[in-house]
Amino acid sequence: MERIELRPTGRRPVVFEGELIAESRTAWDQANWRWSGSTGRQERVRVWRTASGRFVVEHLRQTQWVGEHDTTAVLVFDSVADLVGWIEQRHRIIADELLEALRRHDLLEPERIE
Fold first, then answer.
1. pLDDT at res. 109
2. Would you list the domain boundaries of the chain?
3. Strand 55-63 vs strand 41-50: parallel, antiparallel, or unpaired?
């Protein structure tokens, strides 16, 4: 575990001890397979697991457009289920990569349908 300090837009810094377990990003332009779907904009998401088992997410939205500003949000989830619910609403590339990282850390089980 390492000490992490995140700086969300418009809020005081967030500090915690954690281990980076997942990260993903989209790309600026259409020529890249990670294209965000919006030219000149991209997203980056990083997920940490804290010593107490909570999950901290940094969601950075970046822009190349004049008059727009980058924003960073920090979210905290108490359970994997809550984290997965948030991830499943993200861009398809980000969601696929983050869910795969959770699988590699044995944090995600398949959805069971009876």
1. 80
2. 2-104
3. antiparallel
The sheet with strand 2-6 has its strands ordered as 2-6, 14-25, 41-50, 55-63, 71-77
* Cβ atoms of residues 74 and 6 within 8 Å: yes
Please say whether the dihedral angle defined by the alpha carbons of residues 1, 8, 22 and 25, taken in this order, is positive or negative.
Answer: negative
pLDDT tens-digit readout, 54-73: 999 999 998 888 998 999 99
The neighbour count for residue 114, using CB atoms within 10 Å, is 2
Supply the pTM of this predicted model.
Answer: 0.87
As a residue count, the chain comes to 114
Tell me which H or E stretch contains 92.
helix 92-104
* DSSP for residue 79: S
Q: Which residue has the tokens 């779907």?
A: 37
Q: What is the pLDDT of residues 60-108, one digit of tens each?
A: 998 888 998 999 999 999 999 999 999 988 877 888 889 999 999 999 8
Residue of 85, 96, 101, 90 lying closest to 61 (CA atoms): 90
